[in-house]
Amino acid sequence: MLGLADEYTVPLYSQAEAARIIGEPENTVRNWARGYAYRTTDGPKTSLSLITVSPHPFSRMSVPFVGLAEAYVIASLKKAGVPMQRIRPAVEAIRNEMGTAEALLSERLKTDGSEVLFDYVEGNGLTRSGLAVVRNKQGVIPEVVADYLQTISYVDGLVESFRPIRYGGTVFVDPRINAGRPSFVETGVRIIDVENRVAAGEPIAEVADDYDLDPDEIVRVIAADRAA
Fold first, then answer.
1. Is the dihedral of CA 4, 22, 46, 113 positive or negative?
2. How many domains, the chain?
């Protein structure tokens, strides 16, 4: 991908791991990654991948950071209430409007979002302009989408890292650090290392002291993972 270093495009995650990081069902992310077959009145159809994946999508590590970031943005559309059957045309509309397959990774999605986040209207027809901006009644980007986009950091106009919203801003994902594993913002420690010690029975206070973390922060992160 143009302007992105290798660590952003090499497969780092399984589809199951990608799903856990963004807080979506594994089957949902699998469909976004692989596409899926479905029946219509015109016969069987096959959807294409919505996110960037390895040329070998059935290998264990098939999702690069850029694919994870794309899935994170798509998850925001889902949580904003865009029906699942409309997410695909909405994403395609975003890419067509911005003139790039990398639209979901672009900072323009954050700065110009009210003009490029689209959804198809009800029925078979479209609005007079062809597309309808995905807005709430106040005429702005849905708050949940805006909240997601605010957690993404960019460099040279493309995604650099993000803080999964379900962790409340205390965890970040950056492919240059800890091989892209979710890590605490405060110290850079991988959350899996902390969670494994707590799961083994070590007191949270001791683990927090060893890693120079707030015990309450550890509790919140563990709770977020259990709720996923």
1. negative
2. 1
